[in-house]
Amino acid sequence: MGHRTFSEDDYRTARRDYGVTSSTDVTRKAEQRARDTGRLSEIVDPAVEPVRRSLIRLDPYQKQWMATVGCPVDIEVSCDTTGSMGGEVDTEMAVLPDLYKAVSKVLPGHDPQLCLGIFGDVSDKFVMCRPQFEMEAAKIVNYLKEMAPQRDGGDAPEDPQYAMFARAYLTDAYTNRIGLKGYHFVVTDATCHKRISREEIKRIFGAEIFNNELENMSQIPTIERMIEELKKKTHQFILVVKGYEDTYDFWRQLCGEGSVITLNSTRQLPAVISAIIGLTEGTLDVGNLGDHLGNNLNLVRQLSGIDIGAQAKLRHALPHPVPQKGDIFAKKGDIWPISASKSDADAATETKTDESAEDEIRYL
Amino acid sequence: MISLKVRNYEVGDLIGEASKFRIYLGHDGEKNVVIKVAKTFEDGDLLAEEASWFNVLRAFTAQVAAMQEELGQDNAHYDWLFANLKSSFLESTQQDRRINVLETVDVDFNKLIPLSKLRNQTEIDARSSVWILGRFLKIYSFYELLAASGDNPIVRYANFSPGDYLVGPERHRLIYYNHAGATADVVANTYVMAIAKFMQEWTVVENSPAEQKYYQLLSDFATKGRVTCKDAHTELYSLVNELWGIQYHPFTYRAQDTSRWKTIEENKEE
């Protein structure tokens, strides 16, 4: 599966090769094509091979398999492209190098894999675009330019619930296989419809979805149940951009207080997303949070409310250490590398202290 | 002697311990710092919470200072009231136990003593108790300001615990440096009462009319509290101005069960 990761040079080359030379209207051609053909490009159409995959990259090695990069971390960002947020694919494209660089910094030794999608309204011809998880600049630039934002609406609520549904039920992520979580971000300035319908699921993910990938789904989940499932699989966040107070309250009630962050601009996405991931993984020095966020008090306050170290806790509960670059797997589909076991040092952390001790400091 | 180093910090003597962390003196190459080490990985949650709290305090003190500068007001130096979080990280060489590194602004850790320790060993005179009470009320009125400044889910008062503060007697510093404890909703009354009661028990009040008048206010705070800590702070300094004027008074104390008063003042220790 190779070992290439994102680089700025590759990004610039890819933009040139794909003719994405302007900073605006990067999706103009794809939008026109979608209007003419009535179809989305296959690489962003959620109905084409609906399950998105984020897997560990392995290369053959002496009749076995070797991890070429490290443990993958799936990061899905779904952006509202209705009304006032119609130009967000341009923004996603523009902030992409910063985003990849920022998340790589807080995921040392890991393989960040990005699925940057968009969503609109169920009244749109295309409700959402969802690419594969990718880690190379050329592939990400390629799928971004193939998006077809509908740019209609602006009349909240919108329909990001299907993007959330896709991560909850139509994703095969290595993080989930080993007991960790990926990351899911919805970027919006509006509330959402609370309805998930069988008809819309078929329209978005394909007429045969309930005969194939979702054949075991006898009942359509409520939005609350779907979010519960999403939270089992991801550290899930709603990033509200310049939203009204009721938008923030809406999402806070639906997803929980620590899951909703308000931003002034989508330009803040790389810093905010990487800070959230760094705090959750335990890799970002909390003392540097202010610097990381440009000393933005509002963001520092909000990010102080998230579950710091949540992924680190999951990591500590795993039966084996998280796979690293160079680890050997017996077979390609294996979850854990050969002789993966918890080190003595890890085991030592399981020693408990006396919980009944007093909390007051005893000075010596 | 071989000293233990964690990242860029030299870890020195153990100075205190709570149920979930230990506190060491340390050095960052330039100045003394305090290093708190969680006892286990799981105990690190408490220090992560503390780190978040100190981040918010730092960001807000900076915002207030910038606002005061813009308005041409004197800097209230709220940053002197709180330890500054230098670093908070999971240390892989210590089984991912969280470590918080704290520094103080404008005063060295060597010049500071835990309030609970000082309280247990000494009694203080009325005018020394004034500035300590004043600092407490300033800290809590800062929280009121913070709570009023925006939709912040984590603004709650830290429960009053003397062990969470350091005192710098020479320069009249009271520094909040430990947030690894419980918090409660913003209700000023309870805190004014708790702090005043603590000061009342620590202070030796003479029979002079001025000290008696101060004691009356302290008693009133301790029994009735005040609607806001800011109100209490204003009321305190209005009385102090009337009684003694606002001026430096060296920290004056005596060891428990003795009668000889001693003083500690800036650049001069008895």
Structural account:
- The complex is a heterodimer of chains A (364) and B (270).
- Chain A is α/β, with parallel strands linked by helices.
- Chain A has helices at residues 8-17, 28-37, 88-106, 137-145, 161-169, 174-178, 198-205, 223-233, 245-255, 269-281, 289-292, 297-303, 310-317, 344-348; strands at 52-54, 58-61, 64-67, 71-80, 110-119, 128-129, 171-173, 182-188, 234-241, 260-263, 328-329, 362-363.
- Chain A has 14 helices and 12 strands.
- Chain A has a 6-stranded mixed sheet, sandwiched between helices. A 3-stranded antiparallel sheet of chain A has the order 2-3-11, with no helix packed on it.
- In chain A, α3 (88-106) packs antiparallel against α4.
- The model of chain A is unreliable at 343-358 (pLDDT under 50).
- With 270 residues, chain B is of the alpha+beta class.
- Chain B has 2 domains: 4-109, Phosphorylase Kinase, domain 1, CATH 3.30.200.20; 113-269, Transferase(Phosphotransferase), domain 1 (Orthogonal Bundle).
- Chain B contains 6 helices and 16 strands.
- Chain B has a 6-stranded antiparallel sheet, with helices on one face. In chain B, strands 13-8-14-15-16 form a 5-stranded mixed sheet. Chain B has a 3-stranded antiparallel sheet with strand order 7-10-11.
- The relative contact order of chain B is 0.13.
- The interface between A and B is large, with 40 and 53 residues.
- β12 (362-363) of chain A pairs antiparallel with β2 (9-17) of chain B, so a sheet runs across the interface.
Q: How do the helices and strands line up, and which of them pair or pack?
A:
The complex is a heterodimer of chains A (364) and B (270).
Chain A: H1 8-17, H2 28-37, E1 52-54, E2 58-61, E3 64-67, E4 71-80, H3 88-106, E5 110-119, E6 128-129, H4 137-145, H5 161-169, E7 171-173, H6 174-178, E8 182-188, H7 198-205, H8 223-233, E9 234-241, H9 245-255, E10 260-263, H10 269-281, H11 289-292, H12 297-303, H13 310-317, E11 328-329, H14 344-348, E12 362-363
Parallel strand pairs in A: 1-7, 4-5, 4-8, 8-9, 9-10
Antiparallel strand pairs in A: 2-3, 3-11, 5-6
Chain B: E1 4-6, E2 9-17, E3 21-27, E4 32-38, H1 44-70, E5 84-91, E6 97-103, E7 113-114, H2 115-121, E8 122-125, H3 126-148, E9 157-158, E10 165-168, E11 173-176, E12 183-184, H4 188-202, E13 203-204, H5 209-224, H6 229-243, E14 251-255, E15 262-265, E16 268-269
Parallel strand pairs in B: 8-13
Antiparallel strand pairs in B: 1-2, 2-3, 3-4, 4-6, 5-6, 7-10, 8-14, 9-12, 10-11, 14-15, 15-16
Helix pairs in contact in B: 3-4, 3-6, 4-5, 5-6
